[in-house]
Design goal:
The protein has 148 residues and is an all-alpha fold. The protein is built from six helices and no strands.
Length: 148
C-alpha cells in the first residue's frame, strides 16, 4: 500500500513537471516565432525604399537618396517600434544601437534638427561612393544588425 502511494505521488509529480516543461517550451517557441515574424516585417518595410534607391543608382541627383530615406522613415519607425515591443529584452539593446546608427538621431537635441539632419550622413562619405550606394549600404547594415 505504501509503495503504491509513493508510486502515485511520483507519477503525479512527473506528469505535472512534464506539463509545465511542455508549456514552457511552447511559450518560448511562440515568443521566438513572434520575434522572427517582427524581424521579417521590419526587413519587409524597407522593400519600397530599397527598390527606389536601386532604381536611382545610375542617376545623379544631390539629396535624392536623403529624400528617399526620409520619406520611408515613418514606415520604418513603425516597424522598429513593433519589433522592439516583441523581441526579448536581451535583444533590445543591440536593436536600439543599430537603429541609432541608422538614423543618427541621438546627435541632435531638438526634434526639428533630428528631422532635418536625419540620414544626412549618407550624403557625406569618406569614399567616392554614389549617394544611392551609400544609402543602400546604410539600410543593409541596419537589416543585417537586426537579424544577427
Amino acid at each position: 500500500m505504501c509503495n503504491e502511494i509513493i508510486s502515485t505521488i511520483i507519477g503525479v509529480i512527473g506528469a505535472i513537471s512534464g506539463v509545465w516543461y511542455g508549456a514552457h517550451l511552447s511559450r518560448k517557441a511562440a515568443r521566438d516565432l513572434l520575434a522572427q515574424q517582427a524581424k521579417a516585417e521590419f526587413a519587409a518595410s524597407f522593400t519600397d525604399t530599397i527598390i527606389k534607391l536601386q532604381s536611382k543608382i545610375t542617376e545623379i541627383g544631390v539629396g535624392e537618396a536623403l529624400s528617399i530615406l526620409q520619406a520611408g522613415h515613418p514606415v520604418h519607425f513603425a516597424a522598429y517600434i513593433k519589433l522592439r515591443s516583441v523581441i526579448p529584452k536581451e535583444q533590445q539593446g543591440p536593436v536600439d544601437k543599430a537603429w541609432k546608427e541608422y538614423t543618427k538621431d541621438d546627435k541632435y537635441n531638438l526634434p526639428e534638427e533630428r528631422r532635418f539632419y536625419r540620414f544626412a550622413h549618407v550624403l557625406y562619405s569618406d569614399k567616392d561612393e554614389h549617394q544611392y550606394m551609400q544609402a543602400l549600404k546604410h539600410v543593409n547594415r541596419l537589416i543585417d544588425a537586426i537579424n544577427a
